[in-house]
Specification:
The protein is mainly beta. The protein has 1 helix and 23 strands. The strands form 5 sheets. Strands 1, 15, 20, 21, 22 and 23 form a 6-stranded antiparallel beta sheet that branches. β17 and β18 form a beta hairpin. The two termini are 37 Å apart.
């Protein structure tokens, strides 16, 4: 008998009790591909579909220069929209200060189904500091609240960032970019959703360039599939993946699994000190009310 399932992935600060499973390299190699009639998977299981823009300001990617953006404050000559962004043109501040310049968007509505604002940020000069603000129609688009600060540190490449706008769901808003100091860039700011997945906590997003470094037997464990693959050699790779932190979580759409599908495969990378995550299944036998933990890991 086939069962309808929902898969949930949760980043946690402490693990739930579950014995770890250990696979040999040979066992890991025999794991079924997560697709097809006998081992179906959630749609977009590998996150290569990226994200879909749900709502955005006009000209959110600055491909039409600064058209549909309003400049105010001092030093407006510091602002431009040159080529060389994460995707085409981008918003560039050569400098900044306490009195501007400010760059304001057109209005757009934050949808409750997709409240996560994602964008790309780059710090071109050491000490560069970028800020983002939001204002609502109810406040006349004049009361600006800060929703993001990059911090003022070393130079960086283009980095994907996210902000949770759940508290603004259902409202018409405008976004304001500015630089407090140094040379910084912004690109592709919009609210997006992950196809076939639902954000259930926090602000997870798809990182198209997640890096899984190579490892050898002497380098220790490398997580693959439903457990540890000990003593194996894994070739490094860069691929798309969902990035979660803190207590963030996402849940898949419903999918069907056949009786002879008895293993789940997934690839996990971790950053920082002591991260942990868990994977759950929700089954249609109780209308997806109860979670069944199938894997967890503390690094």
């Amino acid at each position: 008998m086939k069962k309808l399932l929902v898969l949930a992935i949760l980043a946690v600060s402490a693990l739930l009790p579950l014995p770890e499973l250990h696979l040999s390299p040979a066992e890991a190699a025999q794991m079924p591909s997560p697709s097809g009639a006998t081992a179906p998977s959630p749609l977009n299981y590998d996150f290569t579909a990226g994200e879909i823009v749900v709502a955005s300001p006009t000209n959110y990617g600055f491909e039409d220069g600064l058209n549909n953006w309003t400049l105010s404050g001092s030093n407006q000559s510091y602002v431009s929209a040159p080529s060389g962004g994460y995707s085409g043109k981008y918003l560039r501040f050569e400098n900044g200060g306490t009195s501007g310049p400010y760059v304001d968007s057109t209005a757009f509505a934050v949808q409750s189904s997709a409240p996560i604002w994602t964008f790309y940020f780059q710090r071109f000069s050491s000490g560069g500091c970028g800020l983002i603000y939001i204002a609502t129609q109810g406040g006349g688009y004049t009361n600006w609240s800060q929703i993001y600060s990059s911090g003022c540190s070393a130079t960086s490449g283009w980095e994907k960032k996210s902000v949770d706008l759940t508290s603004y769901a259902g409202q018409s808003v405008k976004i304001r970019y500015r630089s407090l100091s140094g040379t910084v860039g912004f690109d592709e700011g919009a609210t997006r959703r992950i196809p076939s997945w639902t954000v259930t906590a926090g602000k997870p997003y798809v990182d198209p360039n997640m890096s899984y470094p190579a490892t050898t037997a002497s380098a220790g464990d490398y997580d693959v599939g439903e457990g540890h693959c000990k003593g194996s050699s894994i070739v490094g790779r860069i691929s798309a993946g969902a990035r979660l932190k803190g207590s963030e979580s996402i849940k898949s759409d419903i999918f069907t699994i056949a009786p002879d599908s008895n293993r789940a495969g997934f690839l996990v990378g971790a950053e920082g000190i002591g991260p942990a995550f868990s994977v759950f299944l929700y089954v249609d036998t109780d209308n997806y009310a109860s979670s069944h933990i199938i894997y967890n890991k503390q690094y």
